[in-house]
Specification:
Strand content: 25-35%
Number of strands: 4
Strand order of the largest sheet: 2-1-3-4
Shape: globular
Distance between the termini: 34 Å
Structural class: mainly beta
Helix content: under 10%
Largest sheet: 4 strands, antiparallel
Radius of gyration: 14 Å
Number of helices: 0
Length: 71
């Protein structure tokens, strides 16, 4: 699985999300609109040992929700 650590400033990993097994996607919920977040990912093995962190990823949350139309 993976551990995602994220926060509102570079190097500030105030929050965490954990995935299990081979899950390759995750949804970060409760992010503030218009705010930027910084994310690092670690893989973990069955014993809970974490890998080195990924490079930091910058995510900008839109100020409004995207508009979608039914197909």
């Amino acid at each position: 699985g993976y551990h995602l650590f994220y926060g509102p400033s570079p190097g500030s990993m105030a929050y965490a999300l954990h995935t299990a097994g081979q899950q390759l996607t995750a949804t970060l919920r409760g992010l503030d609109p218009g705010r930027t977040y910084y994310v690092r990912v670690h893989a973990h093995d069955g014993l809970g040992r974490l890998s080195e962190a990924s490079n930091e990823i910058v995510i900008g949350v839109p100020t409004t929700a995207p508009v979608t139309s039914p197909i």
